[in-house]
């Protein structure tokens, strides 16, 4: 079985700073992968290179059997990649329903080539908002949301694109205990529906319970790629986190 | 509202405007009306790129002149009827828009604005050095005395521009309500997020520059026939670049109605000022209003109205909020025209009356702003300034002769009385009793 996402020798530098150094990563279809690492280790840069927000200098990215590095971001989204942003980037002048409507219009519809009636779209938008508990604020604007709600909107918008691979970049930062449980349950449910999930997170409890496999980045290098239990006992990982 | 219905209504409004013009049977009305209308087209076109997508185009004059010079070129090379020229100018300017977009859209913000400014200068330099279209000497385009069927040629030009206005407004509204409009809004808000959600931003931006440029060119196509003598400095004039930006900004950039309102208000104001004071003050008026709006009402008139409606009537519109809205709207329009009229009165023989009128006009504008912002001082000021305007109207009626002036001042007094009566309504008063901060907290 070929991997859904195959990253080979991926490197990215900003001037003299090497942000990513020959990263190899493969994610199987249906897998739940955790991606961790200290701040500045290159997690978000890796996501940006996979999703096309940034372009890598070396290496290749294959998704669903096709080479995607070189494609612009929206083409990769059309192929079935979706991500949430670490710092939420809602569209401030659009209401919440319309925020969620964008991927439906531009990705789901473009992919299927079918135009859905406006009423169907509205229902789907509200369903997606309900999924993250934002249905009561559907006609409000992002400025009326708390940081936590913005993260939920971010996630709803990414899911709206009906991806094969969902990359959740710190979707849980700042959330309360029960809210983390809610989001985790949601991600597991999505995973059961067949969506492969990469979870980037600092909250170890969440990563440990969610992931089937964990990849650790430190200073732009991959230092571990193993089961959760093996990773937390890996001396190199412990060293990186505790500064030994 | 569905698009076909909207188109029919727009055409109906256009027909009423045209017939109203016919009723007065003054060629000058069509002459002045044409100027206002071509600014409506220009402002609407600018807004498709500037308002919907958030890319500020400083080179509107370049696209406008491109349309005008397309006409000059064909006038010499192969004379065509003006509707055909409008289509050709739209194609030429649209293609240049597409090319400009391709070259510049990787630039953002101020760099894009500078690039468009440079484009206008490059085009102007080209035209100045192109003898065939008159070069720096300019070109004469002698318009026929009469047009078929319609008769007066200026009326024909007005009618064409009226239809073009309907086209521009219908296109702008159709975009706003469509998938394209949502895509444009995401570009304005956050391009990176838009790309990540599957919006092909570069392609959408190219569509925007093409439509926007094309409409600007179309607005310019009949211009040589209108003006009779076209020179580069008038076609590439500062007035076009500035007005194309200022009118949508003052009206409001997020919807089709903003540029329409802004262009009608500013265009008419400039026409009135040209007649009563001097055309030299036109840019001054635009400049002052632009600065004032950017500071006081950054979302334009439409934004002010939307905020008012959101705060005053959370569920549905009531006749009260509609009444206050009309009073405030009247205050703004009457105040702005009042300023122009009173300045011309000061410059003429009646300085005392002019100063009084100036004070009343400024008070009207301020109170309208207060009313829309739901400030308690707005209600007080509105009562006071409308009372003052009654006094002023009566004095004017006493001193000034003539039927036209009589109707104008009599009407102003009647409206002021009606406004004061409306503002005494208990429901209206209650809107202004709660401090706005608390209202927002409870809603």
Question: Given the C-alpha coordinates, what overall shape of chain A results?
Answer: globular
What summary fits the major beta sheet of chain B? Answer: 2 strands, antiparallel
CATH topology-level name of the largest domain in chain B: ABC transporter involved in vitamin B12 uptake, BtuC
- Adjacency order of strands in the biggest sheet of chain B: 1-4
How many helical elements of chain B?
21
What's the CATH first level of the largest domain in chain B? Mainly Alpha
Task: Just give the CATH class of chain A.
Answer: Alpha Beta
Poorly predicted segments of chain B: none
Characterize the structure shown.
The complex is a heterodimer of chains A (244) and B (443). By secondary structure, chain A is of the alpha/beta class. Chain A has one domain (5-242): P-loop containing nucleotide triphosphate hydrolases (Rossmann fold). Chain A is 40% helix and 25% strand. Chain A contains nine helices and ten strands. Chain A has helices at 43-51, 73-79, 96-112, 118-131, 147-160, 177-192, 204-210, 228-232, 235-242; strands spanning 5-14, 17-27, 32-36, 58-63, 66-67, 81-84, 165-169, 196-200, 213-218, 221-226. In chain A, the strands form two sheets. A six-stranded mixed sheet of chain A has the order 6-7-8-3-9-10, sandwiched between helices. A four-stranded antiparallel sheet of chain A has the order 2-1-4-5, with helices on one face. In chain A, β4 and β5 form a beta hairpin. In chain A, α3 crosses α4 (118-131), α3 packs parallel to α5 (147-160) and α4 (118-131) packs across α5. The radius of gyration of chain A is 18 Å and the shape is globular. The model of chain A has no long low-confidence stretch (mean pLDDT 89). Chain B contains 21 helices and four strands. Helix content of chain B is 79%, strand content 2%. Chain B has helices spanning 3-24, 27-50, 60-77, 82-104, 109-128, 153-176, 179-189, 191-196, 201-220, 223-227, 232-235, 238-251, 257-276, 282-296, 300-312, 319-347, 351-372, 376-399, 403-423, 426-431, 436-442; strands at residues 139-140, 146-147, 151-152, 229-230. The relative contact order of chain B is 0.10. Chain B is mostly helical and 443 residues long. Chain B has two domains: 3-262, Orthogonal Bundle (ABC transporter involved in vitamin B12 uptake, BtuC), CATH 1.10.3470; 300-442. The A-B interface holds A 51-53, 72-74, 77-78, 82-83, 85, 89-94, 98, 101-103, 105-107, 109-110, 157-158, 160-161 and B 179, 182-183, 185-186, 188-190, 192-202, 254.
């Amino acid at each position: 079985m070929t991997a859904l996402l195959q990253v080979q020798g991926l490197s990215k530098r900003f001037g003299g700073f090497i942000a990513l150094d020959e990263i190899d990563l493969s994610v199987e279809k249906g897998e739940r992968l955790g991606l961790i690492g200290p701040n500045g280790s290159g997690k978000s840069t890796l996501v940006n290179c996979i999703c096309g927000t940034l372009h890598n200098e070396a290496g290749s990215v294959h998704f669903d059997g096709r080479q995607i590095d070189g494609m612009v971001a929206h083409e990769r989204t059309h192929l079935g990649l979706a991500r949430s942003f670490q710092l939420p980037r809602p569209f401030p002048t659009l209401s919440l329903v319309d925020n969620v409507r964008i991927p439906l219009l531009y990705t789901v519809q473009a992919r299927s080539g079918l135009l859905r009636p406006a009423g169907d779209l509205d229902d789907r938008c509200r369903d997606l908002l309900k999924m993250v508990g934002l249905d009561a604020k559907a006609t409000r604007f992002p400025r009326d949301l708390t940081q936590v709600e913005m993260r939920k909107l971010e996630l709803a918008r990414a899911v709206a694109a009906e991806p094969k691979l969902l990359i959740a970049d710190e979707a849980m930062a700042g959330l309360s205990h029960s809210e983390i449980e809610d989001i985790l349950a949601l991600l597991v449910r999505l995973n059961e529906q067949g969506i492969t999930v990469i979870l980037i997170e600092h909250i170890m409890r969440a990563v440990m319970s969610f992931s089937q496999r964990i990849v650790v980045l430190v200073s732009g290098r991959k230092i571990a790629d193993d089961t959760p239990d093996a990773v937390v006992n890996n001396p190199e990982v412990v060293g990186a986190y505790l500064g030994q | 509202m569905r698009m076909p219905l909207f188109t029919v209504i727009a055409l109906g409004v256009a027909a009423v405007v045209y017939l109203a013009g016919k009723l007065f049977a003054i060629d000058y009305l069509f002459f002045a009306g044409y100027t206002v209308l071509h600014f409506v087209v220009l402002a609407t076109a600018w807004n498709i790129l500037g308002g919907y997508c958030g890319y500020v185009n400083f080179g509107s004059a370049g696209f406008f002149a491109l349309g005008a010079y397309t006409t000059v070129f064909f006038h010499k090379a192969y004379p065509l009827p003006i509707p055909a020229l409008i289509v050709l100018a739209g194609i030429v300017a649209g293609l240049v828009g597409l090319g400009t977009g391709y070259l510049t859209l990787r630039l953002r913000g101020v760099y894009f604005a500078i690039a468009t400014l440079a484009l206008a200068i490059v085009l102007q330099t080209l035209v100045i050095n192109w003898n065939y279209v008159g070069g720096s000497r300019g070109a004469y385009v002698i318009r026929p005395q009469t047009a078929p069927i319609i008769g007066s040629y200026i009326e024909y030009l007005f009618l064409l521009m009226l239809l073009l206005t309907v086209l521009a407004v219908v296109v702008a509204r159709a975009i706003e309500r469509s998938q394209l409009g949502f895509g444009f809004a995401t570009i304005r808000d956050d391009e990176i997020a838009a790309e990540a959600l599957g919006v092909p931003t570069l392609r959408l931006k190219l569509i925007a520059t093409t439509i926007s440029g094309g409409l600007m060119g179309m607005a310019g196509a009949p211009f040589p026939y209108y003006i009779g003598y076209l020179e580069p400095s008038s076609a590439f004039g500062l007035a076009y670049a500035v007005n194309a930006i200022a009118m949508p900004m003052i009206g409001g950039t997020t919807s089709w109605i903003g540029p329409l309102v802004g262009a009608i208000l500013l265009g008419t104001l400039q026409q009135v000022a040209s007649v009563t004071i001097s055309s030299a003050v036109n840019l001054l008026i635009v400049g002052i209003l632009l600065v004032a709006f950017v500071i006081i009402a950054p979302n334009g008139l439409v934004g002010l109205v939307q905020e008012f409606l959101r705060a005053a009537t959370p569920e549905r519109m009531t006749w009260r909020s509609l009444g206050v809205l009309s009073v405030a709207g009247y205050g703004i329009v009457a105040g702005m025209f009042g300023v122009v009229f009173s300045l011309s009165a000061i410059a003429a023989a009646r300085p005392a009356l002019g100063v009084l009128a100036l004070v009343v006009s400024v008070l009207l504008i301020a109170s309208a702003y207060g009313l829309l912002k739901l400030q308690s001082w707005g209600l007080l000021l509105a009562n006071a300034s409308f009372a003052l305007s009654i006094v002023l109207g009566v004095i004017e009626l006493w001193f000034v002769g003539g039927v036209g002036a009589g109707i104008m001042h009599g009407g102003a007094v009647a409206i002021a009385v009606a406004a004061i009566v409306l503002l005494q309504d208990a429901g209206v008063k209650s809107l202004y009793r709660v401090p706005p901060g608390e209202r927002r907290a409870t809603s």
